[in-house]
Amino acid sequence: MNQRTKTGLEILQAAALIGILGNLLLRHTPWGLNAFLFVATFVAGLIMLMWRRRPELLTANTIALAGAMTFFASMFLLRDSIELRVYDTIAILVIMGVILLVNFGVKAHVAGTFHYAAGFVWSGLTSAFGPFVLLGSDIDWKAMPGNKISKSVFAVLRGLAIALPLLLIFGALFMAADAAFEGYVNRALNFDIDIIVSHVMVTSALAWLTAGYFRGAIAEKFVPVAAATASTAATHSSDKSTSFVEKVAAEPADNSSSLPDNATILEHINRSDPPNKPEAEPAKKRDWQTFDSSILPSVFTLGTVETVIILGLIDLLFLGFVIIQVPYLFGGMEYIQQAPDFKLADYARRGFGELVAVSALVLPMLLASHWLLRREAAAKTETIFKVLAGVQIALLFVIMASVVQRLVLLTGELGYGMTTIRFYPMVFMIWLAVVFGWFALTVFRGARNHFAWGALWSALVILGATNLLNPDAFIVQTNVRLMHQGRQFDALYNSNLSDDAIRVLFDALPSMNSDDQCVVAYRLYRRMVQAREEGDLRSWNASRSVARSMMAEHVPPSSEESMSGCLLDATKPLPF
Predict the structure, then answer these.
(1) What is the pLDDT, as a whole number, of residue 15?
(2) Are 476 and 504 a contacting pair, CB within 8 Å?
(3) To which H or E segment does residue 13 belong?
(4) Residue 78 pLDDT more than 80?
(5) What is the CA radius of gyration of the chain?
(6) Is 383 exposed, middle or buried, given 0-12, 13-18 or 19+ CB atoms closer than 10 A?
(7) Alpha helix (H) ranges present in 372-513?
(8) DSSP secondary structure code for residue 373 in this structure
(9) Containing H/E element for 65?
(10) Separation of alpha carbons 369 and 385, rounded Å
(11) What span, in angstroms and rounded, lies between the C-alpha atoms of 549 and 369?
């Protein structure tokens, strides 16, 4: 049994165990403890397979990325916010794609954004189609030592295939002949086939995807290995089939030495030597690590003229917008409110999302423009790019300041309070500010290959800090503070946030007016009823646990009628 077969069998074993565990854990929602255990087991299986079969893949980068995966999985134990769970899941999937790069000889810390995107796409492809190669090519089933056992197993299966129809026929006849026998058979076979099929399908799907990903992460590249094996086999076959006499006959005969043009020795000496031919430049070695725009025809790359036109025109557009925004930024709230035909709500709401989109689009545009720069005139074009891109980033920071100002207006004393669709874009803007600073430190200094790694970890760190901040609780705290300053409190929205905000809601309940108290109280009661229906240990989560404890302590178990009455008549006192 060769090493590829052993590796393939270990991948199948690990995938089968993870598939069974995933079926037992992930069937129950909302995810909490079950998601953490599944991801932790997945990471442990990946690390174990790398350690046993490809220890050279266990680099410091791989271990750090595996640790980040485990961290974001642990956030399912801490937070209940649906937005955070979605972002944490995306982070885990992105990390899975980056981990695959090391198997292609690409170092993640000096890879580019293209490598990360390719790794993400490849992780999906190998998860879906990798098991076909694993089962059909990697594992040599005929060379397995259990070949005799396999024959016995297949013999048993053939016997069962023949006996099963006969059993069904005779069994159906016996059931039709005797009612007592029919009753025994019905009781013995009383199970829900849909549930069994569901378990089999979920287990198989998880095991299939896991096996495909593990193969893409640790299996050696199939094409080089197959080519080397075929070449070696062909050489041995040729050597064995050729006799000694045939080998001697195939050797070229020694030709007599002769000078060019059949010249004599004296004529050859008197001739002058021809000029030396210039040595041809060695062909540039291409690999995944040094993937750049030199692979493209020059018509698809950017020279000095194209760079000036593209970035110059965009800079002029940005400058025009910034000139209009400067008075609003530095004139203060008085200037904004005194502007003719100006509505604060329109100013704040209309521009926030659009400016966030502008800030997000600038980064991929600059990265693509820099990658497409023509390498023949790299020095001059690079200098022009740095100047124009630097101007654009400076103007973009002014635009981002405008975004922050609009967010302050939306969530401040004159605004409408904090919501998730305002909070998370602001976190995204913070990350963009960090990334643009990192872009200037790396790309402008000729170290573009370090940009993607720093941008990835800045995103992971900011997302991790956001998890620890507890966004839903922060949103409610902000809205309660505005309520104390005289702003209207949206009780329905705040009470519909996740269990992460329950403690803050309970603390703020006495300071609310009677209408808001009734809305919050009723929503808490309905949430408590739902929590009792979801009391499964697999969904355990710290926020949900605390919320259920507080609701069980403060919300009476039979207050449906009083809660509904509170909503109809706000003058009634709270039932708790």
Answers:
(1) 95
(2) yes
(3) helix 3-26
(4) yes
(5) 35
(6) exposed
(7) 378-411, 420-442, 451-469, 471-484, 491-495, 502-508
(8) B
(9) helix 60-78
(10) 9
(11) 55
Q: How far is CA 368 from CA 42, 315, 358, in A?
A: 35, 16, 16
pLDDT at 222: 44
Distance CA(455)–CA(117), nearest Å, equals 13
pLDDT of residue 25: 93
Q: Is the dihedral of CA 486, 490, 495, 498 positive or negative?
A: negative
Tokens of 156: 């048993």
CB 158 within 8 A of CB 239: no
- Structure-block tokens of residue 255: 């030709």
Q: Is the pLDDT of residue 135 over 90?
A: no
Beta bridge partners of 285: none
Task: Please tell me which residue, 311 or 219, carries the higher pLDDT value.
Answer: 311
Quote the Cα angle for 185-188-191, to 5°.
120
Name the residue with tokens 């069998």: 9
Token pair in block for residue 273: 């030597």
Q: Name every residue whose Cβ is closer than 8 Å to that of residue 116 and which is 6 or more positions away in sequence.
A: 94, 97, 98, 101, 452, 456
> Among 165-169, 226-230, 474-478, 548-552, where is mean pLDDT lowest?
226-230
Residue with tokens 């060695």: 282
CB of 511 closer than 8 Å to CB of 484: yes
Nearest CA to 216 out of 126, 288, 121, 133 is that of: 126
Annotate 208-233 with b (16+ C-beta within 10 A) or e (fewer): bbbbbbbbbbbbeeeeeeeeeeeeee
Contact 81/498 with Cβ under 8 angstroms?
yes
pLDDT in tens, 337-396: 666 555 665 666 666 778 888 988 999 999 999 888 887 666 788 899 999 999 999 999
Single-letter code of the amino acid located at 114: F
Going by pLDDT thresholds of 50, 70 and 90, the confidence category of residue 5 is confident
Q: Are 6 and 145 in contact (CB under 8 A)?
A: no
